[in-house]
Specification:
The chain is 44% helix and 17% strand. With 362 residues, it is α/β, with parallel strands linked by helices. Helix 1 crosses helix 3, helix 5 packs parallel to helix 14 and helix 6 packs parallel to helix 7.
């Protein structure tokens, strides 16, 4: 492995000061022509590769403002994970002149979301990181930032056919296929399964609809078990009493219903309203490593959790924008994250994984 060449090594080999080498590197200050030529020749002979981050920062004295637009994490525990990923990334790039500005919107209020988008655009940030949960309002943001030449990265939900710099998150369709495969392990031929959306505004939530389609397609494949698939949307998920009444009526109406795929992080809201006897015949697959889901996973009331890597979505979103703004690197349009299968035996490992990410930018 080749030893890293440092500025002081070049200075020693050339016989000049470290400051002189630094001035040659960044083309600033007075350096005699013959000294400049000698330093450049030694750099070439030693195979020195300048730190492009440092060079870029030396040439750009501005502060880069990144606007982060996410659902309010105080209203839904899932959104605390991408927020924490953003915070750690912001810590790692702050000394590069990057300033992260947070904007949180209520999860089910598209009008408030649009108002926040308008306010953000008026400030003319250098870049935007956002979760486009509301399609039409997000389309407005995409169009306006395009007019203004503002790069943007989407996380969690993908809107296709845009000029967004990148999408970071899961492949929603494949996550539905995976959920079907996992649930299939616990079902017998002739059982029924359900895709359950515990959400609001589902017609506009394309990532949820993609999961639903992937799940259906898995069970419709040739040669599989004969599993009838139902779909349902239940919007009163914050009312345990109403949820229990609805769930019990559903199970009475469909006695062969043995498997549930909850399409978001709210699997715990469904499982918690069912008594132990009812849960004995029910298999549940859900999403996300939030505390109530993990508790029910440990109790074997949730069989599998699919990890969407929400923490990494926020972390990589900031680094993607910094790589674009500062390093001028080519950015992949899609950055699909692994669909990790979480069971009781490996959950603790995945909870520790975020600390493995580097604090410094690569």
């Amino acid at each position: 492995m080749q030893q890293r060449i440092r500025i002081k090594d070049i200075a020693a080999q050339t016989g000049v000061s470290i400051g002189t080498v630094d001035r040659v590197l960044h083309n600033r200050g007075h350096v005699a022509p013959e000294v400049r030529i000698r330093v450049l020749r030694v750099m070439e002979e030693m195979g020195y590769q300048p730190n492009m981050v440092a060079r870029s920062l030396a040439n750009n004295k501005k502060t880069f403002r990144i606007a982060v637009i996410l659902p309010d994490y105080r209203l839904d525990p899932y959104w605390e994970q991408p927020k924490e990923g953003v915070e750690r990334a912001a810590e790692s790039v702050g000394h590069y002149g990057v300033q992260v500005e947070y904007h949180f919107f209520p999860l089910f209020e598209p009008k408030t979301y649009l108002q926040i988008l308008r306010e953000v655009v008026e400030t003319l940030p250098d870049a935007v990181l956002f979760a486009p949960l509301f399609h039409d309002e997000s389309a407005w943001l995409l169009a306006e930032t395009t007019k203004l030449g503002i790069p943007k990265v989407m996380i969690n939900t993908q809107i296709e056919g845009t000029d967004a710099l990148s999408y970071i998150g899961q492949d929603s369709y494949q996550s539905g296929v995976l959920a079907g495969r996992l649930l299939n392990f616990g079902l017998n031929d002739g059982d029924h399964a359900m895709v359950l959306n515990l959400d609001k505004e589902v017609p506009g939530a394309r990532h949820l609809l993609a999961k639903q389609q992937g799940f259906k397609d898995f069970f419709n494949r040739p040669g599989g078990k004969n599993i009838e698939v139902h779909t349902a949307v239940f919007e009163a998920f914050d009312d345990p009493a109403e949820m229990k009444t609805w769930a019990m009526q559903l199970l009475q109406q469909h006695p062969k219903l043995k498997g549930f795929f909850i399409t978001n992080s709210r699997a715990y809201k469904f499982v918690e309203v069912l008594d132990h006897q009812t849960m004995e015949g029910i298999k549940v697959v859900g999403f996300d490593l939030i505390a109530p889901n993990l508790r029910l996973l440990e109790e074997n009331k949730i069989r599998f959790l699919i990890n969407q890597n929400a923490w990494r979505q926020g972390y990589l979103g900031i680094h993607t924008l910094v790589n674009h703004l500062i390093l001028r690197k080519d950015i992949p349009v899609q950055q699909y994250l692994p669909l990790d299968i979480i069971v009781r035996e490996n959950a603790s490992y995945y909870l520790e994984r975020p600390v493995e990410l580097p604090l410094a930018m690569l």
